[in-house]
Fold this sequence. Notes:
Blueprint: H1 2-37, E1 39-42, E2 45-50, H2 54-61, H3 63-96, H4 101-113, H5 116-126, H6 133-140, H7 155-180, H8 184-192, H9 197-208, H10 210-224, H11 229-234, H12 246-255, H13 260-285
Antiparallel strand pairs: 1-2
Helix pairs in contact: 1-13, 3-7, 3-10, 4-7, 7-10, 10-13, 12-13
Amino acid sequence: xxTKLYRGYQPFLFLLPALVFIAIFTYYPIGYSIxxxxxxxxxxxxxxxxxxxxxxxMMMKDPIFWTVVWNNVIYGxxxxxxxxxxxxxxxxxxxESKRFKAFFQLxxxxxxxxxxAAAAMIWVFMLDxxxxxxxxxxxxxxxxxxxxxxxxxxxxxxxxxMSIWKNLGYFMLIFLAGLQSIPKYLYEAAEIEGSGxxxxxxxxxxxxxxxxxxxxxxxSVIQSFKVFTQIHLMTKGGPGYSSNVLVYYIxxxxxxxxxxxxxxxxxxxxxLFLLFLVVxxxxxxxxxVHYSLT
Length: 294
């Protein structure tokens, strides 16, 4: 009887260390953040004062908050979808290539090996309006030279380009691993039936690589809403608030304005929004993901 009881609880005992770690370093901070979001607290009033939903009401009335949210949406849309499309296309081309597979894989994956801080500084020099190699190249062809990081019209786009470059190789390898699980006889049968390159991949590759697609999609969404390092090092959210996003705005409220209550409210909104997005993605793709050929 005791043996059966032990076997029933054994899986939970193995999970216990991970659950304790998650509870201490994930759920407890989330709960504390929600608690502080209902209070007013800053550097000059260490004792939190209960204010109810006032932080949330102030947030909704703040035009800067909506500017930051819109920036984050633009950043997410224009990093997630182009990166996924290019990563899948490159994975297909590398999978079909006969030579230099390892060279192309390493070349595309190498940016991920560079620490984000170092990569950000590299792009700061490359995007310099006067001395950067990008503007020098544009100058050779007589093309307009954007101010990039110093312009409110191009600073966010500069961050988007940098992020696509940084993440492309990682997602390409994930898609490449997914392509290895697709039987080659399916492509051979499609070629015998006269299917072209485009139709072959639309009808075989895209449906069967869907598990990798949903993983990449979720990781991309989460990454797009927790982007921080490149913004802090390259633009500091400026000029103005043109390249500011939610996580950086939380940082500013907490460590520049010392408004812990507002920072906690912003954090709570970010967590709930990400949770909603992940549930929505799983709900939408649950019946569209093919984990086997049957």
